[in-house]
Amino acid sequence: MLIDNHNRVINYLRLAVTDRCNLRCNYCMPEEGINFAKRDNLFTMDELCSLSSIMVSQGINKIRLTGGEPFVRKDIMVLFRHLASLKALEDISVTTNATLIGPYIDELKSLGIKNINVSLDAINKEAFERITRRNQYDTVYENLIKLISEGFNVRVNCIALEGQNIEEILPLVELTKYYNVSIRFLEEMPFNGGSKSFNTITWDYKKIYNYISEHYSNIERLASESTSTSINYKIKGHKGSFGLIPSFSRTFCGSCNRLRISATGDVITCLYGKPRMNIREILRSDNSEAKINEHILAAIGSRSKTGFEEQQKYDGVFNNSMTSIGG
What we know:
- The chain is of the alpha/beta class.
- It is built from eleven helices and 14 strands.
- It has helices at about 45-55, 75-85, 105-110, 125-130, 135-150, 170-180, 205-215, 280-285, 290-300, 305-310, 320-325, and strands at about 1-5, 10, 10-15, 60-65, 90-95, 115-120, 155-160, 180-185, 220, 230-235, 240-245, 260, 265-270, 275-280.
- The protein has a twelve-stranded mixed β-sheet with strand order 9-10-11-8-7-6-5-4-3-12-13-14. The protein has a two-stranded antiparallel ribbon with strand order 1-2.
């Protein structure tokens, strides 16, 4: 079992399989993209399988695959199959933009992988294409409806962007009336790859809730796990639910149970800090399992209590893009 220096159990790994993405969302990176990692600096699929086994042996029982966009890796199902074979792993999930998941939906279902987070910042086609700078709306919408129809536990993640998609909030909430889906609204975060300056936000989680509550009555707060990052609600008569994630306000830091490992091997104990170490070359060396166990224990043994505390230690952390740090 992994326990950090604040006595928090770390049982959830967000494992990035690539830093590449086939969209160019304007809050994540510049239109021309970022300097993506060279292929040799990325974990191979065999290495990702080995690393996941090591982490599960240390007490990780929940793994979410992230990117970039995970499905740009054409061999991604090799890792899903391996994860499904790990009996101690209780929860396997993936965060995706849903552009490329279509051909894999049936196999994901057969493997018992049911938890899918879809990043979708607009339900209106014009707004979607303006934000993503790509013409993929029809594919994304088709795959989203198929995932819901096939019985996946689908959570749609929408970042509330001042001047860009606030008018999308209510139409997205309206989806919960007809579909058993969770629509979650995130506060904007400053990891945009230098695409713009960032000092504060207008649409925090309280303002998002107030906006929704002005248009819907009979909103009930749902019970959530203590480690949940979202505050969840259900509107009476709706099939689905909606949630708010205070990703900028960081109200959930005290119960954080997450560890991130980037596609290049950076071990990240908090999004608001720099990597603690890199384990790529360690994994490629002899006696790698024992060495990785030692380094992971060292990383979680020096965690900050909150993101605000971590942020004070490092300059320049906000120059990163979300696609390079695993979402």
